[in-house]
Amino acid sequence: MSSDTAATPRLVTAAACQLGPIHLADTREDVLKRMISLLDQAAEQGVKLAVFPELAFTTFFPRYLLEGQDLDQYFDIEDPRKGGIEQSPNIKPLFDHARSLDIDVYVGYAERSIQSDGSHVDYNSSVYYSAKANKIVGKYRKVHLPGSVEPKTAAGAFQQLEKRYFRPGDLGFPAFRAPGLVDGALKKGDMENSTTGKGDPIIGMLICNDRRWPEAWRVYGLQGMEIMCCGYNTTAFQTTSSGHAVDMSPEAAEELVMLHHKLSCQGNSYMNACFSINVAKTGAEDGNPLVGGTMIVHPLGHIIKEAVTKEDELVVATIDLADCDRPKSTVFAFEKHRRTEHYHSIVERTGVVEPELLASD
Ligand code: CDV
């Protein structure tokens, strides 16, 4: 890629569709109405890509110990014999509406994946629906599941049971191109010296806790990702290993959570020379506070636009994917500067192995 000539603009108007709290008593129909209302507002502002949060259609249920029907109601069935998740009655109306408005959608949901023998495996998933293709063109299953399998037993402990309810994602980090988002995208077979940074936008997807893991971003970065979409439900406080809130004022705790959220998204956007659209479910769900911080981040690391409420709110920006070109061709030109011969431990080791202790004097 050359940075000598000014790149042709590749403009996309994108919306981070923040959702306020969804309480246990809220119905799926009510939530769908709120999401469709955000899509309508987005269409009025010329939006072509709308990004919704993790587990967008319900309350953040992994904070509860649930079984049987109480748990089943939160899942959407993905049965390949019945046409996939886009046919789920809970989700189809969102995609149908998006298609009528010519808007692409990223959305998170609890996936119950039906296997060929009739059993099921559950994932915390997201899909990318393309209005132009009128189908799902990207799918992701959350890799970094936080929390525990067994509930914390200490009195007053907060639960985070994602490891109980979901299996770790098995699809890796597959970037893909979204058709119809930018004008004049080069297609396969077009004769050009270089097609880098000139095709249809390259999209990556992460879910919540994944955004804190640079390995995940880098695997996408190595596929030339230009827009990262990431929905999340992040508690507005941090917990100790026993599940109790860290001992600090609620204000200080939330400030720290927000700092870590922003460091993760801004740092990794910068280090992979990509835009990121980071979308919260926020506010207090039945008294359980979730942090906000919905924001669209530039490849140079700064926040282009961010939410100002903890309610349903649209954060809209027109981004120019050509802004990825300079960092991708200079400081983060991976092909020129990476030294993979020194990176073995990244894939060979999971936990920390400290250097040997020093001998006593
Ligand atoms: N839903 C999440 O993945 N939440 C985690 C919390 C538990 C740390 C997060 O990274 O925001």
From TrEMBL:
Keywords: Hydrolase
Gene3D superfamilies: Carbon-nitrogen hydrolase
SUPFAM superfamilies in UniProt: Carbon-nitrogen hydrolase
Superkingdom of this protein's organism: Eukaryota
CN hydrolase domain segment(s): 12-321
Pfam families reported in the protein's UniProt record: CN_hydrolase
Family annotation (InterPro entries): Aliph_Amidase/BUP, C-N_Hydrolase, C-N_Hydrolase_sf
Residue spans crossing the bilayer: none
UniProt GO MF annotations: hydrolase activity, acting on carbon-nitrogen (but not peptide) bonds, in linear amides
Entry protein name: CN hydrolase domain-containing protein
Source organism of this protein record: Penicillium frequentans
